[in-house]
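User: what does the whole thing look like in 3D?
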Amino acid sequence: MLTLKDYEPIVGTQVLDELKLLGQKLSGKIVQHINSTAVGGGVAEILNRMLPLLKEVGVDARWDVIKGDDKFFAVTKKIHNAIHHSPTAVTPEEFDILLETNRENARNMDFPGDIIFVHDPQPIALVDLKKELGKKWIWRCHIDSSSPLIHVWDMLLPYIQQYDAAIFSASVFAQTLPIHQFLISPSIDPLSDKNRPLPREQVNGILDNFGLDRGRPIITQISRFDRLKDPCGVVEVYQLVKKYTDCQLVLAGGGAADDPEGEAVLAEVREKAANDPDVHILLLPPDSNIEINALQRGSDVIIQKSLKEGFGLTVSEALWKETPVVASAVGGIPLQISHQFNGLLASTIEGIAYNVRQFLHNPKYARLMAQHGKEHVRQNFLITRHLRDYLLLFLAMEYPNQDFVLL
Amino acid sequence: MNEPLIQARESFRFYTRLNLLELTGVKARNIQELLILIEKSPDSVVYHHTHHFLQQHVYLSPEPPNDFAYWVKGILGDYLLAEQLASIDIYDFNSLKELKEKICSVIKNYIPQNVQCIRAVPLGKEFNFIKAVTFVLPTLYQTKNLAEFLVALKKVTIHSLYFHIFESRLRLKQPTNDFSYWLETSLGEKKIADALNRLDPYTHTMEGLRKKICELIENRIADC
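Assistant: Here's the predicted 3D structure for the full assembly of 631 residues, as structure tokens:
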């Protein structure tokens, strides 16, 4: 198992010393994370990496996953889309499915945490227990909530308002709320299988196994097969770039247990690709971290053409590997990419395609952007920064309404 | 050959400052709203928007000097006002109140002459006001002489450096910093203290600043 010491060559001793100092102030505190899936998707990935580190600095971090049936996950997917402002109707009867599933989970779970840290809308109504249990309750919204559909937000609001604090990934996601709202960006783990350095031969071997031609440029989007990631739009980007450069496209991603739409989207993408042999659609199992790592390292350009994005950590993953990135300026992506400084941003299919061509035709420029990108991620989007923010958040729960705390 | 090095009358404890960012939910859509909301903002908001870039972009200098200038230039597209806001030397101010007044006066003077330029930004491009919730804690490093100080200086985080160099002016309400103050009053090292005070911290990266201060001290130690 990795320890903080393993991060020393990447972030320096000083950063680790500060984490330990903060951890001492929280020693023995139980922080109970609750979400709806143990595998797949960014939340589970971050929690898997974060919990051992929290424990190492002295926080008694735990993690529970709520259970739900297909109906429940169909409703929560709709709620997810509605928070993203996708036209979606959620009826009161459907919302009742969420509430009843939350009640059922509440009856079957223990809540030993001093701080209950609830992730995303699926378990949001567990906070009803606060009246009975007390404790500090935090709701972490990993979704782009900048313009949620009002009828759905209004359903969630009575629950959000019961929390002591809400956490958002970007300032534009903040809402007018009567509770504290904190800004904490997610992060990547530079030592995970998905991000750790790989030998060139291993990268080449994986590209070969996927049938990719290493002699021609590869452009790649790594994402779940989800309409909000616009994989069909990415195929159109590729088709525009292909007019000038004989390139290949990789669309690679897995599904998550709480995402029932994946298969339908996958079928749409296959139809769009129309059997083009240079379009590689890779439906990867959840444990394909090394493969994703290799694809991000072996690609000439990474695209993240999301229409909405909670944060878009695949951008930081690619930047960390010094691969040039072209992305749409949605959600948390502008926090990760400053246009023409460490990557390129665009909003349309044509704009993304133009930027991909810029990188493919100007490798020195692409290289410079990518180098800046790696340093930007080192300072702002590694798990050690995320750990520090969480520790500060837990301390903030002990000093509510104070702007300045001398520890 | 200079004066020999001495033990400090009082030891120097390195502290560090860490910020948690709180979203206020308050947003400005045009320059007039920006002015009104800055005027109403507490120090912790002004502090965040004028200082966070120092810590966030440590690998590149120069950087956008404050969020207000960055938004006015990048979103409102008002280059003249952005330049005026960017030119405010925040190191000149010993209190956030004075700094806030200066920012407001620049905007106030600009608006009447440029009424035709006032426009609202599209949804999602508003200026989002953020507050820094600050935690200050002592580090493990406490030093009693210049040599120990140098060792610790190389080990502390940029957050600690930042606390002692930038934050100190606001805390001490004097045009100095913690390092210079201690070097002069406890070690009698006025020459280094003055040299350190003359450094322009806004044109260095934090690591560049660390290197510069270490060089000053290494030269002094070598001269003994």
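In plain terms: Residues 363-380 of chain A form the longest helix (18 residues). The mean pLDDT of chain A is 94.
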